[in-house]
Amino acid sequence: MLGVVFWEGRLVDSCQERADGSLLLTLSEDPSHRPRCGRCGSDCVLLHERRRRRVRDRDWFDRHVWLDVPIRRLDCYQCGARAAERLSWLDTGERITHRLRAWIEALVQILPIAHVAQLTGLHWHTIKRIDHRRLQTRYGTFDAQGVRRLVMDEFALHKGHRYATVIMDAERMRVLWVGEGNSREAIRPFFELLGKEGCQHIEAVAMDMNTAFDLEVRAHCPNAEVVYDLFHVVARFGREVVDRVRVDQANALRSAPAQRQVIKRSRWLLLRNRDNLGNEQAVKLEELLAANAPLATVYLLKTAIKEIWFAPSVRDGARRWKDWYRLAIESGIAPAIAFAKRLRKYLRGILASAIFPLNTSILEGVNNRIKVIKRMAYGFRDSAYFFLKIKAAFPGKAR
């Protein structure tokens, strides 16, 4: 009865405990079960040969379970093939049952592969192969039907300035494509997969000020408006202007070590959003800005530049830009002036945020999740598998 329930077409002859504590079940053929051809599925009566195979099944409590299974090779009248018989619980050539594979597929969605390997006693590469096949079946097909708005960003793939690009459906929060590199050539396969008709349906693409992304979008999507992301602009202003002025002010106070240390240690106070500061940190920030005019000026510019992206219309955004640009130029601070002049080239994409309120902040969340996936896997050497894991982590909202 046990064999009929768990292993259709087979009966349990014996159960033996092995030296390592696992169980070995020896199975035999059920005479009442008619074998079927592994190729065409037809009933077969002619037997070509019989072999036995050692197969892993799902654990019973704390015991690993092995099966010693007789496998018949049949001579089929219907298709003329000599093929191994078809079993409902074991694929041809496999050495793990469907039940064990389904258990592993559930485990790898919540545990690192190394932990699943330790739990099941299977090799790391065996578990990775099972998971890779699951992901390929579910997420391996490119599907961008109905996509109108995109966000794209790059993330660090490995150390040594190796990057990959992720492209997401901004409306459904679904990762559409991931590829190695951050150049025009690297992202071109996405637009080729999207096709001419799909590209024409794209109305807006949010990105950072990456010239490669910009040029490739304009080349393939004639109806798309490029929207430059607030997060990246503010982050770049923090690095190129606020940080530069902070270092210059600290260097100017070499004769006053105590004041110099205060400014040197104020980097995160100046770069973080004011809303994210605690009461004590907010007081320190106010004291710092009150004591240093150049730092107060660039901090004000950093805060004011955000208002351009929240303008209710293009006209109002243009007015806010003119006010901010005038303040930056009149500040007399060289890094702020240089930044404002460079940013002016990207004005159209900045003002487009009033029409298409897109940003890549969702991709910043994707980047954080990517780091978690890499840590869980202790690093990925197989980029294709890694990219499938990213797509699985962001399947998108249901329509």
From TrEMBL:
<dbReference type="InterPro" id="IPR002560">
    <property type="entry name" value="Transposase_DDE"/>
</dbReference>
<protein>
    <submittedName>
        <fullName>Transposase</fullName>
    </submittedName>
</protein>
<feature type="domain" description="Transposase IS204/IS1001/IS1096/IS1165 helix-turn-helix">
    <location>
        <begin position="85"/>
        <end position="134"/>
    </location>
</feature>
<dbReference type="InterPro" id="IPR047951">
    <property type="entry name" value="Transpos_ISL3"/>
</dbReference>
<feature type="domain" description="Transposase IS204/IS1001/IS1096/IS1165 DDE">
    <location>
        <begin position="150"/>
        <end position="390"/>
    </location>
</feature>
<dbReference type="Pfam" id="PF13542">
    <property type="entry name" value="HTH_Tnp_ISL3"/>
</dbReference>
<dbReference type="InterPro" id="IPR032877">
    <property type="entry name" value="Transposase_HTH"/>
</dbReference>
<dbReference type="Pfam" id="PF01610">
    <property type="entry name" value="DDE_Tnp_ISL3"/>
</dbReference>
